[in-house]
């Protein structure tokens, strides 16, 4: 049985047993939080548990490395919508130790893409169209610095109100321990 069929079979059982009842909530975050974090699989259940968040408490935005690459890209748009449409008044940027985006080898990633059928011509065409593939795929050298840079970008964003507290945190993906890098209440970087 393939993965999709396994998912569909489980979903049918989930619906028949009304497994959704325990997850009912509103679309507005109960704790008025929006969280930008990494897509790392270790954080899927650990992060909300470590923060004492339940279904419906926060809006979660996940991407590779919890990085904002474009101040007007989809991650920032999601944060802005969470603030103005869903009444979030705090943003948590949460990275983690051992992130796969730390020191990402762009050459290796491009080689793997080509090994899976992406033509070098496609890469060259994109580069010739002004898309900097290397920068787009680039990670960071320091997760701490990346978090601080993302917090600064959000704090200085022209479409994010100054009354929104923006915090920068780093998590241990093994234990769930959270350390504060930027306290948005004090507006200080630690």
Kindly describe this structure.
The chain has 190 residues and is α/β, with parallel strands linked by helices. Helix content is 37%, strand content 18%. It is globular and about 50 Å long. The model has no long low-confidence stretch (mean pLDDT 95).
- How many distinct helices? 7
Helix content: 25-40%
Cα shape: globular
Spans of 5+ residues with little confidence (pLDDT < 50)?
none
Key words describing this protein structure:
six-stranded mixed sheet, Beta-carbonic Anhydrase, Chain A, 190 residues, 6 strands, 2 domains, alpha/beta, 7 helices, globular
Put the structure in a nutshell.
The chain is an alpha/beta fold and 190 residues long.
Summarize the helices and strands and which ones pair or pack.
Elements: H1 3-16, E1 33-38, H2 43-50, E2 58-63, H3 74-84, E3 90-96, H4 106-115, H5 120-128, H6 133-137, H7 143-155, E4 165-171, E5 178-183, E6 188-189
Parallel strand pairs: 1-2, 1-3, 3-4
Antiparallel strand pairs: 4-5, 5-6
